[in-house]
Amino acid sequence: MQGPPPAPLIGAMTTAGGLISAADTSWMLIATALVLLMTPALAFFYGGLVRSKNVLNTMMMSLGSLGAVGIAWVVAGYSLAFAPGNGWIGGGAHLFLNGVGLEPKGSIR
Length: 109
Known about the structure:
Elements: E1 13-15, E2 18-20, H1 22-49, H2 55-82
Antiparallel strand pairs: 1-2
Helix pairs in contact: 1-2
């Protein structure tokens, strides 16, 4: 015999039949901010390893890579990470964010 369905998490909201956890969303935002702060720090580190005439070029290459990786994520990264596929890598169902909307697609528990 099954018991009642589990109660929603504290701070969770129900949207379009799905469950969005405030704690999960907060953690993803914090982790994203830490990665974005890591990029300029790495640029300063690399800038300290080269001669003074090459510092600006080295730092701009580090910051330019942030844009290149962002575009690569939109083109194929999201699909390889989250589209249905085998146990190791996802498929190409969401290339160029095809079919990705704002509605939740399940929940993380």
